[in-house]
Design a protein that fits this description.
- By secondary structure, this protein is mainly beta.
- The chain starts with a helix and ends with a strand.
- It contains 2 helices and 11 strands.
- It has helices at 2-21, 93-107, and strands at residues 32-42, 62-74, 77-87, 111-117, 121-135, 138-153, 156-164, 167-174, 180-193, 198-214, 227-242.
- The longest helix has 20 residues, at 2-21.
- A hairpin with a 2-residue loop joins strand 7 (156-164) and strand 8 (167-174).
- Residues 1-21 form the signal peptide.
- It holds the Pfam family OMP_b-brl.
Length: 243
Amino acid sequence: MKKTILLPLLCSVFFVFTAKAQDTPPEKPSSYLSITAGLSTPFGDFKKADYSNNKAGFAKKGVMYDFEGGFYLHKNWGLGVMLTYQDQGRLNTDDATALSDGYRLEDGAYTSTVTASKRYSSFALMAGPQYNIAFGKFIVDARVMVGALKSFSSPKVVVILENYENIQTSTFTQNSSKSFAWAYGGSASFTYKLSDGVGLVLRENLIDAPTGFKISTDAHSGRTVDHQPMSVYQTSLGLRFAL
């Protein structure tokens, strides 16, 4: 859903400001560094809280930080590089209950207990071609990008089934992940120049890792997760510094 929103947004930004630029003397873009902070919102399977969907991530909204640079090489074209940190929360009581009920019903256990610890915490390093349009005190940058996600942690889930397959107690564990995953996405920023060297920037990012990061588990029945896709939409505000 967010992907279908960001692409038309980038196209609209390009055509609207290109038309405006035809009536405004062009300004040479300056390379820059920026730092912003804001909200990272999960979407798609990553957001879903569904026991029957092995790709469901039970992810939550969380804080994100963005450090990036734009380096213009030829006229309005350049290279954008982005490093973000995002926290997507942890499983809550309702999530643990939904998983517990799912395992108990699917595996025919007498009782089931799910204990969840740790949270989604990751970095993303991405880069791609960037286009700049500037007029007056306003600057618009848009780009597509590819890169990688590094998971520092993901929820660890321990499942205990009582009286399962004539075994008094059986325990499964979905471990926290520290793996990498390939990702792609897009970014658009809107900057208001406070001075020649400093601007106030509003940034929109979309990051999607459809294959997901690897998760180790010893579950041999019921819900089994070996890869967790990650999809987030980010809005942040901060400062931009001309180089």
